[in-house]
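#struct-pred
JK: can someone run the complex with zinc ion? inputs below
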Amino acid sequence: MSRIVKEYKKIKKVLEGHGEAFENLIVQLAPVNEYDLLSWKATIRGPSDTPYNGFSIGLTIKIPSDYPISPPMVKFEPYKMPHCNVNFQTGEICLDILTRQHWSPAWDLLHVLKAIEQLLQEPVPESPLNVDIANILKEGDRTAYTGLVRYYFCGGT
Amino acid sequence: MSEVESDSYLSLVYEDELYDNESMELYESQTTAVHCTDEIPCHKFESLQSYESEFDIEDLQFDEEDESEDEPLREQSTHTLDKPSLDGSNLPNLRYESLTTDDIFQRMLQRVDHLQPVLSIPAEDILLLMQRFDWSEERLLEDWTEKADELLIGSGLKRVHEADKEGENGLVRGIKHRESFTCPICCEDKTETFVMECGHEYCTDCYKHYIKDLLNQGNIITCMGCSLALKNEDIDLIMGSASSHKLMDSSIRSFVTKHNRNYKWCPYADCKCIIHLFDASSLEEYTRLHCSKFVTCKSNHSFCFTCGYEMHAPADCSVVSAWVKKAKKESENLNWVLAHTKECPKCSVNIEKNGGCNHMVCSSCKYEFCWICGGEWAPHGNSYYQCTVYKSDDDKGKSDKDDLRKTLKRYTFYYRVFNEHEVSAKLDWKLGQNIGHKVRALQESVGVSWIEGQFLPESLKILNEGRTALKWSFAVAFYSDPSHNLTKIFADNQLLLSNAVEDLSQLRQIQDPETIMQRKTEFYNKAGYVENRTHALMECGRDLLRKGICKTKD
Ligand SMILES: [Zn+2]
Ligand SMILES: [Zn+2]
Ligand SMILES: [Zn+2]
Ligand SMILES: [Zn+2]
Ligand SMILES: [Zn+2]
Ligand SMILES: [Zn+2]
Ligand SMILES: [Zn+2]
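RT: done, structure tokens with the ligand placed:
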């Protein structure tokens, strides 16, 4: 458990320190309540040059009891996330480093958010959880992709 | 009728004079008794004796097995002898061997030995490369000749910057004992750590947690901080001796699963055997002829290589899958069928079945009845087993609903008989578990040799095979066109086998060793008869399938 305590302290420092590589990415990364470090919420900025630019995106993070041997469980919540590697209904993310097999105990939550940023920049339509968006991407229709993402963010269902 | 008369299962019926008359009558009327008589057709006696000698040869082969190195193990005989037509007509003889993950791993180690002079890197490293390439020597060598260095780096055997010696801090891989060390993973102060050339150092407790689950996955395990690979010796150092064996085992397991065209796990619970079929391409020929390749593992479990079910002839794999699917769907409605106890139809005392024989005698009122249909036994014993044939009601309800009910009723009947035979087979098998004791009892009390006592397990084996064939024949019957003449002939063959099986099963309930020895000839005789009837039923079933009379709807 003291590992997550250490991370907590580090994250606080990083987010207060500014100037870090995380400033453009992280709006918020904190435990849901200060007494329970097993449940976190995060808000990240949609990366520029992506249809997500200009939007804030919410995530929840659950820390398993054997963290960091096991990876954290990350989901897009509470808002629905239109992305070809995200289950639209559940917010579940298909990202290799979040699986037991590819996760390294040397990584931390900041690594995880970096990896998610990268996924937003480079979607992988070959292994889709959202087939509709994957198909649009495979056709290379950037305009339709941006349009669809924005439609969902602006209240579409 | 003339169309089928030349077929082998019929000629087999006609084969010896003893059954000639009966079978002739069988196809004309349906009334004459066919029963196993006590007379001995002597060629059958011989055929059973040859079983014994085959047993000897097999034992010898088993002993030699350890010495055979690269050579694939001999085919474990499936005890079918060399009867030419048991596997259908011109089927290719598919050779196979029964292995364990350890056997396969030993072979891989031999390949590593062969590769070592070629690659000239430590054997440990080659093992790791083989693991990475799914144990394919060819793919490994291909990549090696093209880009050996890249390969070593990509497999975590070499560090990217190793060449320029930068960051070389004289670190030797291994366990370190420290005064005080704050582990970056658990953030606790620890004294025992594991460090690698990359400089990444973590406490051994963290490494233990990390490695533990990964052992089951069979992939290369790396440093927790980078992609440098942990070798088997490192794993054993951290986790305790022979822990890497588990990793190798998982890796071989995934090899077997990935190569499931040639390798199949024995489907029996807790069995660790793997069947390796040398030439899987000929399996298609089997499928085309509605035959199945049945294999037997080292622990003597027989199963179909294609679908993994028990020996299911005369049914082919598609009949089996359709039948099983249907049974699953209907099982909720039909659970009552599975009950192992029944009330005596006369006095309602509860009777539990303790052997496979379907000839029941009520312990209370001594009423003799048939377990399957509940009817009085007398007609069963002396005439055909009428309870194996579904008798459709002649009421001519024309509506769809009635049709549906009729279909269900017909299915229920076949399902019920199928199940009863399954239960019987299991009970017979249970009895067979004590067969070793029985043979020993024979040896001790009657003074027969081990070889002489073998007729007992052999007859049990034949009984089981007969029951299994009978059981699956009901799946074939269910999917067969009831109006076709061959379907009727098939039903007749079922009756004959059913009778033969019940007869042998009854004999097997004798407990007294001396009586068993006295009736040894009867065992031979009846087992031989069951064998022939099984054979005939299988042939007939295959014909139904080949001629398209037996068809699953999808
Ligand atoms: Zn540690
Ligand atoms: Zn490292
Ligand atoms: Zn087995
Ligand atoms: Zn099969
Ligand atoms: Zn009986
Ligand atoms: Zn009774
Ligand atoms: Zn009956």
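RT: quick notes.
The pocket of zinc ion (ligand 1) is lined by residues B 183, 185-186, 190, 202-203, 205-206 (CB under 6 Å).
The beta strands of chain A are 26-33, 36-45, 56-62, 73-76.
JK: thanks, will look after standup
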